[in-house]
Amino acid sequence: MNGATVPNPSTSYFETLFADRPVMAILRGFAPDRTVELCRRAWDAGIDVVEVPVQSPDALPSLHAAIAAGRERDRPVGAGTVTTPEQVATVYDAGVAFTVAPGYDPEVAAECVRLGLPHLPGVATSSEVNQALRTGHDWLKAFPASELGTGWLRAQRGPFPTVKFVATGGVDAENAADFLAAGARVVAVGSALQDSRQLDLLGRLLRR
């Protein structure tokens, strides 16, 4: 069955979070001060949603700094690269608004549901899409988007019309519009935030 079968907070949360917000910022590997600087640059550009990946413990100070800055501006900050239930607990205690993973892990998804924490799992195959749907996740991260391509997104819309994809990995201001046209509801960008020209292009995309 290609529908949500397990109630969880993800669907309604992401519907609201990404309403009229087709771009999310990913800030990986920056020191806390630089992370906050780029958060503010994203928010000033109209990119309200920020993800800070926590692939290793030394990324946690940057996540904490981003969350504190987000509270000042009333902006949501999520944790990315969450791959274990233990990480879920850590970022939940830090006060994240949501979690993101590079793949679909049922234990991670279940822990997020238990805590009432919206979760965006990654998928790269039809089997993973179907597994995620069966646990109530219809907002999914298409990763790595640049390798999967826009054709993959178009193909998945046939068997899985209820899925809302967030295209992530290799997406920038140059190809973001192509992924949105192919059916992605949101594109996630990283390096574009450090490039004023790309920020201008993203600004035009947000104003469409």
Characterization of this structure:
- The protein is α/β, with parallel strands linked by helices and 208 residues long.
- It has a single domain, classed as Aldolase class I (TIM Barrel), CATH 3.20.20.
- It contains ten helices and nine strands.
- Strand 2, helix 3 and strand 3 (77-80) form a beta-alpha-beta unit.
- The radius of gyration is 16 Å and the shape is globular.
- The chain starts with 9 loop residues before the first helix and ends with a helix.
Q: Which SSEs are present, and which pair or pack?
A:
Elements: H1 10-17, E1 23-26, H2 32-44, E2 49-53, H3 60-73, E3 77-80, H4 85-94, E4 99-100, H5 106-115, E5 119-120, E6 122-123, H6 126-134, E7 139-142, H7 145-148, H8 150-157, E8 164-168, H9 176-181, E9 186-189, H10 196-206
Parallel strand pairs: 1-2, 1-9, 2-3, 4-5, 6-7, 7-8, 8-9
Helix pairs in contact: 2-3, 4-5
Give me the Rg, rounded: 16 Å
What is the assigned CATH homologous superfamily? Aldolase class I
The sequence of SSEs as H and E is: HEHEHEHEHEEHEHHEHEH
CATH fold-type name: TIM Barrel
Q: Look at the structure and give the CATH class.
A: Alpha Beta
Total of helices: 10
- Helix/strand-derived category reads alpha/beta
Termini Cα gap: 35 Å
Query: What's the architecture in CATH terms?
Result: Alpha-Beta Barrel
Strand count: 9
Low-pLDDT sequence parts:
1-6
Q: Main β-sheet, in a few words?
A: 7 strands, parallel
* Physical arrangement of strands within the biggest beta sheet: 3-2-1-9-8-7-6
Shape: globular
Helix content: 40-55%
Give the overall average pLDDT: 92
- What is the percentage of strand-forming residues? 15-25%
Number of domains: 1
